Amino acid sequence: MKNHKLLLLRNIIILVLSLLFLVGGGTCVYTDQLLGKINYVAPDSGTGEKTGDIFQDGNASSGTADAKAGLVGGLYHDDAVTNILLLGTDDYQSSDVGRSDSMMLVSVDTRHKKLKITSFMRDMYLAIPGLGSNKLTNAYSLGGGKVKGAKKIVSTLEANFGVDIDRFAIVDFSAFPKIIDRLGGVTITLTAGEAALVNRYSGDSHKVRAGSQNLNGLQARYYSRIRDIGNDYERTLRQRKVFTSLVGKMKASSLPAIYGVLGDTLNLVTTNLQKNEIVSMASNSLTYLNYPVSQNRVPADGEFQVLGLDVGDCLVPDLDACRQSLAKFIYENDIPQGSYS
């Protein structure tokens, strides 16, 4: 299960980062138009969010000589490490603000020259600031959904795990079918049971059968969310297959096709990364994408227990162990000590 989850997360991160790097890295007027499609949210200085350029001290070109590390507001922070939280949400019903189906922290570590990916399990039982304790996935809806919900997840993760999160990006549920359709679908080998469920519930009239099939966007989205066959581990495996095929299509696509994907889907991304910060990321894209990718999960094996609580079965983490292992993963032997302003 762990390997399947990590492979899925890696593929999602590669896809999202590649899109951001590609859209920010061009020099033509069309690129600026694409950047304008993203839903930007100005960081709120009243909530403790970072309001300056988060890459000004720790980007790949400036190096780490002047980058400081320490406790800032009680949180681990290193100028040479940029932490961006990616949220995949299931707010696809107009009457429901939804939940955060996937929560992944991308750490661009220019001190150790690595990209680090940490997935946070949605069923962790955590204290949500101002709202009591609940499953992490519910922090999004309890916080108000969209930008308010994303900020509530950021504050929840910071409060429980003590790591400074610089920015967030929300990817709307409806983005993935559009990406898949633009790239001509994904090739998946279906079982008879999976094919029957896709035909019944995907919302697409085109029928598929057992065996190797090219799934369109609606079919692939439903396939990756099937819960009626196997358990959540198998659901994760199905997601990995979809994204593995999708990343393969991205790599083989022409630049016009990729720009077509961007034109259709960037309006479905909401972020408090600012345009200049995306351009800053893009200016170092060849460096960042060549960093080795390290992967992590919170809570890790042995750092939680499963308990039936008032909100259902939950993963109750050992917070002290999780804090230590997360800080060790992101900052390695350079865990920030002391405070600085």
In round numbers, the mean pLDDT is 81
Spatial sequence of strands, sheet with the most strands: 1-12-9-4-5-6-13
The H-level CATH homologous superfamily of the largest domain, spelled out, is LCP protein
Q: Looking at CATH, which topology of the largest domain would you report? A: Aminopeptidase
Helix and strand topology:
Elements: H1 2-25, H2 29-35, E1 39-40, E2 69-72, E3 75-78, E4 81-89, E5 100-109, E6 114-120, E7 125-128, E8 132-135, H3 139-142, H4 146-161, E9 167-171, H5 175-182, E10 186-190, H6 192-201, E11 211-215, H7 217-225, H8 232-252, H9 255-265, E12 269-271, H10 275-283, H11 285-289, E13 293-298, E14 304-309, E15 312-317, H12 319-331
Parallel strand pairs: 1-12, 4-9, 6-13
Antiparallel strand pairs: 2-3, 4-5, 5-6, 7-8, 9-12, 10-11, 14-15
Helix pairs in contact: 1-8, 1-10, 5-7, 5-9, 6-7, 7-8
Record keyword descriptors for this entry.
Aminopeptidase; two-stranded antiparallel ribbon; 341 residues; 15 strands; disordered N terminus; 7-stranded mixed β-sheet; alpha+beta
Short précis:
This protein is α+β, with helices and mostly antiparallel strands and 341 residues long. Helices cover 40% and strands 23% of the residues. Strands 1-12-9-4-5-6-13 form a seven-stranded mixed sheet, sandwiched between helices. A two-stranded antiparallel ribbon has the order 2-3.
